[in-house]
Amino acid sequence: MDKQQQIYNKLLELVKKENVKVDELLKKHLYTKLGGKADFFITPTNYQEIQNVVKFSNEENIPFMLLGNGSNLIIKDGGIRGIVISLKNLDDISTDGNTIVAQCGARIIDASRHALKENLSGLEFACGIPGTVGGALYMNAGAYGGEIKDVLDYAYVIDRNGDLVKRLASDLDLDYRTSNIEKNKDIVIEATFSLKPGKYEDIKEVMDDLTYKRESKQPLEYPSCGSVFKRPPGYFAGKLIQDSQLQGTNIGGAEVSTKHAGFIVNKNNATTTDYISLIEHVQKTVKEKFGVDLEREVRIIGED
After folding, report:
1. Residue 187 sits in a domain of what CATH number?
2. What does the alpha-carbon distance between residue 9 and residue 13 come to, in Å, rounded to a whole number?
3. d(CA 40, CA 84)
4. Considering 68, 86, 104, which residue would you say is the last residue of a domain?
5. What's the rounded Cα separation, in Å, for the pair 2 and 133?
6. Which of 48, 165, 187, 259 is the most buried (most CB within 10 A)?
């Protein structure tokens, strides 16, 4: 029996058979519709299954990575070796007084909508962020003046040893589009947000306004990874790209959006190579014209 078959057989002991796939094409699971295959693709249905897989991966020295909905992630065309753990089945959201408890695979948009339904204010800024709760904590997601660190109380994570641990918001080093979650190799599985009572009509008015701003300015008709670059100190990335006359520039099927210069869209069956090449072209051009280094907000992983 080869190593691949041994790993597969062991995973079937840890996760239900229908939730284990081999050579799964990752572009089917990513917001960008980009990416090659995963050796193993699993979709756990509870925290214990995640812990079991992490411990197994550690014992056998098998690399693994986590996947929400891939809204801020580019996976290269060569795909991912080892195990990809998709958290999409863990999407429960509940209310406890003035707090909302959301599992890692729930969309942060849905957490925002749940808060509205419960007349709780504080998550309005997240009503247009496409990522999952786990991904939102990972990068301290934010928009329109709000960010996760403003409302996060604490999270439960599975640490690198496979143990369930509580982390306070202050433990996570949340800063502009960053946290220590990757460095610590934590897996966020649940987050508790501390909100304030509000009026349904007032909360909805804010959310409707932000939704209009998003839909009118962002190229939501095409797959993308959202804002590609972090905001450089003293500048706006989109304005620098626009002033570099880069809107409409394309490499293969990837294009700098004509609607919002800070977005690169998958306009015509782009490959990851197209996408990355265009990102690098934008960085090089902006550096030449304005002397500003654009730092990627989007993560790029996988093999060529």
Report:
1. 3.30.465.10
2. 7
3. 6
4. 86
5. 37
6. 187
Residue listed under structure tokens 């109380």: 153
Q: Are residues 29 and 74 in the same domain?
A: yes
Using an 8 Å Cβ cutoff, are 298 and 73 in contact?
yes
Nearest CA among 46, 47, 45 for reference residue 166: 47
Q: Are 195 and 99 in contact (CB under 8 A)?
A: yes
Q: How far is CA 260 from CA 7, 162, 239, 251, in A?
A: 44, 41, 9, 17
139's tokens: 């990068």
Partners of residue 37 on adjacent β-strands: 25
Each residue's pLDDT tens digit, 170-225: 999 999 989 999 899 999 999 999 999 999 999 999 999 999 988 888 888 998 88
44 within a domain of the structure (yes/no): yes
Task: Write down the mean pLDDT value for the chain.
Answer: 94
Give the closest residue to 155 by CA, choosing from 113, 194, 192, 205: 192
Catalytically active residues, by annotation: 177, 227, 297
Radius of gyration of the chain (CA): 20
Q: Which 8-state DSSP code applies to residue 175?
A: B
Q: Are 261 and 217 in contact (CB under 8 A)?
A: no
Q: How far is CA 198 from CA 5, 26, 95, 119, in A?
A: 54, 40, 15, 5
Which tens digits make up the pLDDT trace of 219-259? 889 988 888 999 999 999 999 999 999 999 999 999 999 99
Residue 254 bridge partners (DSSP): 251, 266
Which pLDDT does position 200 carry in this prediction? 97
Give CA angle at 29 (51, 59), nearest 5°: 25
Q: Which domain holds residue 124?
A: 93-202
Q: Is the pLDDT of residue 1 over 70?
A: no
